[in-house]
Design a protein that fits this description.
The chain has 102 residues and is an alpha+beta fold. It is built from two helices and seven strands. A hairpin with a 4-residue loop joins strand 2 and strand 3. The radius of gyration is 15 Å and the shape is globular. This is 60S ribosomal protein l6 mitochondrial.
Length: 102
């Protein structure tokens, strides 16, 4: 069984979209510029879009997945005041479920 590491990225902003093409191994980001940002996906990583504003990066190598997610995030870092940009999507567990276990 192979361990799979994943990272979700959420794109927040008016008109910000993502599109992944698996055959060509490219990720296109529309981030408010006059052109689309084009990122080449390495063969170790698989990228797909759940919605046009949620990107999922999956791979066997944890470092490569996190490095690619950081490269995507660096295209439009999150702004603190306006809340726009590319952010990591964090899935938190419910605290009540954790307390019931103990």
């Amino acid at each position: 069984m192979e361990d799979k590491f994943f990272r979700f990225l959420k794109i927040v902003g008016v008109g910000f979209k993502a599109r992944a093409e698996s055959e060509v191994r490219l990720l296109y980001l529309k981030l408010g510029c006059s052109h689309e940002v084009e990122l080449v996906v390495s063969p170790v990583i698989r990228v797909f879009c759940l919605k046009n504003n949620v990107v999922c990066c999956i791979g066997i190598d944890k470092d490569m997945v996190h490095q690619f997610a950081a490269a995507v995030r660096s295209c439009k870092p999150p702004e603190v005041n306006q809340g726009k940009g590319i952010m990591y999507k964090i899935c938190l567990n419910d605290q009540k479920d954790i307390q019931d276990i103990h």
